[in-house]
Design a protein that fits this description.
heterodimer, A: five-stranded antiparallel β-sheet, B: alpha+beta, DNA polymerase, domain 1, five-stranded mixed β-sheet, 5 helices, binds flavin-adenine dinucleotide, binds iron/sulfur cluster, binds FE2/S2 (inorganic) cluster
């Protein structure tokens, strides 16, 4: 690991100012992603700004009837907060499906959104990687790519975003609040992460020096008809191969509103508004769910090791929509899929 | 290890106060010192184990302000002021912690390498109070890998302590 200087920030302004002044400075919160990457020499910040003492650790009511999650609230605190469990059980469930109790005790709202891909080549500085070193190539496209993307890939990068939390937030249409030298911005989560395109080195639309202050959850938490279905190589403590966050509003057996977000399949939580519209006003039938899945996956492209994800995603979408419609969300304890 | 030492060549330490197993320690640490390495190499508390060094196994689990954390994924400077409990600090007046005793009673280890992490994690789990069934114990212990596969007996040991606590109305 490289040497760095350390600052324990005492105010948001100080943290922002210090970061803006130094292009190689990084904020550190839970540290569970940044320290990992530093140990592999993938990240080599010369200055670390510890933001864990900043007052960004509360969960508060918003004026519109939603909740505001501070950037430093830990994933464990969020997942087991009674307001989150009552009003946003989809978010609680997705967080519980991720990482381990120890990691969730450290991981924060902001850090989770900003965690980087788990692509094997990205993690290994001995290999080329466009995301780590722009212009060097993408060995994953022709190499090992079991965990890689099937949607929204580019010739430059086929990595996925690994977060479970962000997938639930995408379905809930959360808003990420950031503050930077240029002032405050509210970024809809759909516009927060980006597709790799020609610039896979850029994961999201934040600017250097900006700090996430909170994530706002809109009032509608779809707390009756939801599920987070995560499929992976072992039942716990593993990243998603495919995950589906489904949130429905049911009226007299018909779907009045639908939200679907997929994890493990793209460079960002994957949403398809046209597919969601196909559910609106429809009865909850498996035929309909299959048509929706086909629509979402019509442009999916499999690579050498991950073509199985297309079928897996298709079945996961149908199962998740059935679970959500019947009000029987996937248990994150008993892993059997019903 | 050689990069970016340009600028000043002096390595700047940072003062840090930690209470480790009830004892307050004032230390000067380099910013990149990992909590796990501080415990093992500087404080000679080698009970806490290094398995993967990347958050993937749980062998390094300790309790920080009562909550279980992977000490390999934490810079010591960031824990200034914290109370840290390692496996060495669980016994009280020479009596093993009930979970330590339960691990012995249930033969909940083979090589023992994952055991300090399992026990600290289990103590954290019991404190959290969320696990009541075997399935819940299994899921909430999933951050601790045991290469020897002592899982069944580990769940037995934790179940014994949770059961005894429930009977005693704790
Ligand atoms: C073994 C292992 C398994 C895991 N499994 C899963 C899983 O199954 N599902 C899953 O979703 N995740 C998983 N994770 C990832 C984990 O959820 C993330 O590492 C964690 O959420 C990152 O949060 P942090 O606070 O520790 O971030 P840090 O490591 O502190 O920071 C990450 C990045 O965010 C930046 N940052 C942090 N906070 C802010 C802020 N407020 N403003 C601006 N920038 C900020 C930092 O500069 C850094 O670049 C796993 C991790 C490990 C090690
Ligand atoms: S998929 Fe992206 S992150 Fe992985 S090697 Fe290719 S460019 Fe790098
Ligand atoms: S050594 Fe820390 S999790 Fe493996
Ligand atoms: S007892 Fe050997 S690794 Fe668990």
């Amino acid at each position: 690991m490289n040497r760095f200087s350390y600052l324990r920030a005492t105010s948001i302004d100080e943290a922002m100012r210090e970061a803006a002044a130094d292009p190689t400075a990084r904020f550190i919160a839970g540290g569970t992603n940044l320290i990992d990457l530093m140990k592999y020499n993938v990240e080599r910040p010369t200055r670390l700004i510890d933001i864990t003492r900043l007052p960004l650790n509360g969960i508060e009511e918003t004026e519109s009837g939603g909740l505001r999650l501070g950037a430093l609230v830990t994933n464990d605190e969020t997942a087991f907060d009674s307001r989150i469990q009552d009003r946003y059980p989809l978010l609680a469930s997705a967080i519980q499906a991720g990482a381990s109790p120890q990691l969730r005790n450290a991981a924060t709202t902001g850090g989770n959104l900003l965690q980087r891909t788990r692509c094997y080549y990205f993690y290994d500085p001995e290999t080329p990687c466009n995301k780590r070193e722009p212009g060097t190539g993408c060995p994953a496209a022709f190499g090992r790519n079991r965990i890689h993307a099937i949607l929204g890939t580019s010739d430059h990068c086929i990595a996925t975003h690994p977060s479970d939390m962000a997938v639930a937030m995408a379905a809930l249409q959360a808003i990420v609040h950031v503050r930077g030298p240029g002032g405050e911005r509210a970024i809809p989560i759909a516009d927060f992460h980006r597709l790799p395109g020609e610039h896979p080195e850029i994961d999201n639309t934040m600017l250097h020096g900006e700090i996430i202050t909170s994530v706002e959850l809109p009032p509608d938490g779809f707390s009756r008809n939801y599920t987070y279905l995560k499929l992976r190589d072992r039942l716990s403590y593993a990243f998603a191969l495919v995950s589906v966050a489904a949130a429905l509003r049911m009226e007299n057996g018909t779907i009045a509103q639908a939200r679907l977000a997929l994890g493990g399949v793209a460079h960002k939580p994957w949403r398809d508004p046209a597919a969601e519209a196909m559910l609106q006003g429809q009865p909850a039938t498996e035929d309909r769910f299959r048509a929706v899945a086909d629509h979402i996956l019509k442009d999916a492209r499999g690579y050498q090791d991950n073509a199985f994800k297309i079928d897996l995603a298709r079945r996961a979408i149908v199962t998740a929509l059935s679970q959500a419609a019947s009000g029987t969300p996937q248990s994150q304890i008993d892993k059997r899929i019903q | 290890m050689n990069a970016s030492r340009k600028g000043s060549s002096k390595l700047e330490t940072v003062p840090v106060t930690l209470t480790v197993n009830g004892e307050t320690k004032r230390l000067e640490v380099l910013p990149w010192t990992i909590l796990l390495d501080l415990l093992r190499d500087h404080l000679k508390l080698s009970g806490t184990k290094k398995g993967c060094d990347h958050g993937q196994c749980g062998a390094c689990t300790v309790l920080v302000d009562g909550r279980r954390l992977n000490s390999c994924m934490a810079f010591a400077v960031m824990k200034d002021g914290a109370q840290i409990t390692t496996v060495e600090g669980l016994a009280r007046n020479g009596d093993l912690h009930p979970l330590q005793q339960a691990f012995i009673d249930h033969d909940a280890f083979q090589c023992g390498y994952c055991t300090p992490g399992q026990i600290c994690s289990g103590v954290g789990l019991i404190e959290e109070g969320r696990a009541h069934t075997r399935d819940e114990i299994r899921e909430y212990m999933s951050g601790n890998i045991c290469r020897c596969g002592a899982y069944t007996n580990i769940v037995d040991a934790i179940e014994q302590v949770i059961g005894a606590d429930a009977e005693a109305g704790r």
